[in-house]
Amino acid sequence: MDKYHYKTSGLDDVYLLNGFDVIEYGDEKAVSIHNIDGLHQVISSALVQQKTRLTGREFRFLRIEMDLSQKALGMWFDMTDQAIALWEKKDRVPQMADALVRALYMESQGEDSEVRVVLDMLSKVDRVIHRGEFCAEESDEGWTLKVA
After folding, report:
1. What secondary structure letter does DSSP report for 119?
2. For residues 88 and 17, what is the distance between their CA atoms, to the nearest angstrom?
3. Which domain holds residue 30?
């Protein structure tokens, strides 16, 4: 079986040697990837550990893996979402932003990570604000914000 160029990641240089199936539907072909969450963790880990500065696409990959919009990540950096978009598009990720997004990703992966809790809340609030809709649900523990 040939290796598969995994372009859906948004990265140019990710190839899979196995862990995928090619499914044919008449003249069309589709690819099913096994354990995509595990694959993305391996890619993210490699990006965090690389010695060179992150490219804009690599920065975007880590941001998306943390489930953050450009606006939500901009809040962490005290920057606008347009600034984050420019870093990602123009491959001009500042050194401090590079270091911070790596640290945020690594911390977010730890068990009982307080950073992960904050990132999840930011992501949830960001989705609710962009939808213009707030949904709340009451349980025995109290009220929680729900994304419909």
Report:
1. H
2. 28
3. 1-34
The residue whose two tokens read 């890619």 is 43
Asked whether residue 111 falls in the same domain as residue 100, the answer is yes
Who contacts 73 (Cβ-Cβ below 8 Å, separation ≥6)? 63, 66, 84, 101
- Digit-coded pLDDT (tens) for 96-145: 999 989 988 998 887 676 777 777 777 777 766 665 666 778 889 888 87
Q: How many domains does the chain have?
A: 2
| Global pTM value | 0.77
| 111 shares a domain with 78 | yes
Burial 33-65 (b: 16+ CB within 10 A, else e): eeeeeebeeebbeebbeeeeebbbbbbbbbbeb
Q: Give the span between the Cα atoms of 48 and 3, in whole angstroms.
A: 24
The helix (H) or strand (E) run that includes residue 135 is strand 135-139
